[in-house]
Amino acid sequence: MTKSVALSEALFERAVKRIPGGVNSPVRAYGAIGESPRFIDRADGCYIYDVDGNRYIDYIDSWGPMILGHNFPAIRESVVKACEKGLSFGCATEIEVEMAEFICVHIPHIEMIRMVNSGTEAVMSAVRAARGYTGRNKIIKFAGCYHGHSDAMLVSAGSGVMTSGVPDSAGVPAGCTQDTMTAVYNDLDSVRLLMEQAKGEVAAVIVEPVGANMGVVPPAKGFLEGLRGLCDKEQAVLIFDEVITGFRLAFGGAAEYFDVKPDLVTYGKIIGAGMPVGAYGGRREIMEMVSPVGKVYQAGTLSGNPIAMAAGLTQLKYLHSHQEIYKDLAEKGQKLYGSMERMLRERGFGYQVNHISSLGCVFFTDTAVTDYQSAKTSDTAAFAEYFKAMLGMGIHLAPSQFEAMFLSAAHTDEVISETLEAAGKCLDA
Ligand SMILES: Cc1ncc(COP(=O)(O)O)c(C=O)c1O
């Protein structure tokens, strides 16, 4: 099926003249698959429509927050209602208190929470709070985990353990990453080693409890529990970056799903239902380090914006009172990703399908993917072919081998069957 994308292409031509790469976030550029991006006009339910009028089944879901589907009526209405009162006051509002209370009452490991404007800000602030609380500087992160683009987190992921991070981006001074150590995902020994090398210096271990920025890499049995134990032993703060998994794997995110209690949690887009929001929260004694109570400075003019809070709180309340959604998403995930696995085997491909609940990823490699090194064995050219063929059939996947597919409550069984049919045709071709 060939679709006209003339209007998208014309927009891209204009965009590249005024916006670096033509996009406001790099993955949108479709650079990894050698295409130009589709410009989106609107979205509804599980469908997204480009400016040329093409309709796609959307598995990006705005990178996660649209867990109820696009343009969910109750959320849209809450936004319209909030707008009628004004867009931003830069002052305290009741809805911020409601949001904080709602999260703290329903998520047992969160005693206090602070709203920010993005996942990047949430992580940057949580790391600062952990450093302020422990009086230590070193942070352990994992190769292949993405925690936003603050300087200390932009560390190049080497093949193994790294005691001192090398900046992964121009413009990041080496001094900013020298205290960022890198361990291997799903490898507790690598964490032990770093903790021994930096005895008494590790402020925090930060982890995506399900790796979702190197494709999808679930934690091995005992990995998160092991991190909890190591952090307890070394009195380091355990931070779960739940920007992807929060309110998605379960209402209480990965912490509830795996029954492991972090000290701090970072959230992103999902708590704003697609509005620009992030948050970090957790143990009271750590959060009370944050200004104006404590000496860890962190601020934001638009933080807790009333429109974003209205959207986010409506979504969270809906999820909380419809927790059957999580079972439904897990069943749909099993249908979609499980069937893909079967289709690959039937056709003699050794490719991997990693999945957990609504998150999934087809890795174009015969190697089991458990960490960043194994994820990188994927044949990205084969992925690009698959991506383009799927797009041509009206299936909107993330334009990179190393991103997740997101199912929402709006993806029906019929839509999943349609997706599988398209995937079968692409694999045959
Ligand atoms: C796990 C994780 N942490 C942090 C971030 C950064 O969030 P943002 O893009 O809102 O700054 C992302 C972005 O997708 C993410 O996936």
* CATH fold naming of the largest domain: Aspartate Aminotransferase, domain 2
Contiguous low-pLDDT stretches (5 residues minimum) are: none
Q: Summarize the biggest pleated sheet.
A: 7 strands, mixed
Report the mean per-residue pLDDT as an integer. Answer: 96
The CATH class of the largest domain is identified as Alpha Beta
Question: How many E-type strands?
Answer: 14
Strand order of the largest sheet: 4-10-9-8-7-5-6
The assigned CATH architecture of the largest domain is: 3-Layer(aba) Sandwich
**Number of separate structural domains:** 2
Q: Give the class from helix and strand content and strand pairing.
A: alpha/beta
- What gross morphology would you assign? globular
Helix/strand order, N-terminal first: HEEEHHEHEHEHEHEHEEHHHEEHHEEH
Quick take:
With 429 residues, this protein is an alpha/beta fold. The chain is 38% helix and 14% strand.
What features would you describe in this structure?
The structure is a single chain. With 429 residues, the protein is α/β, with parallel strands linked by helices. It folds into 2 domains: 6-71 and 323-428, Alpha-Beta Complex (Aspartate Aminotransferase, domain 1); 73-321, 3-Layer(aba) Sandwich (Aspartate Aminotransferase, domain 2), CATH 3.40.640.10. It has helices at residues 6-18, 73-83, 94-106, 119-134, 174-177, 188-197, 223-234, 253-258, 284-287, 306-321, 324-346, 372-375, 380-392, 413-428; strands at 40-44, 47-50, 55-58, 112-116, 138-142, 180-183, 202-207, 237-241, 264-267, 278-282, 352-356, 359-363, 395-396, 405-406. A hairpin with a 2-residue loop joins strand 1 and strand 2. It is globular.
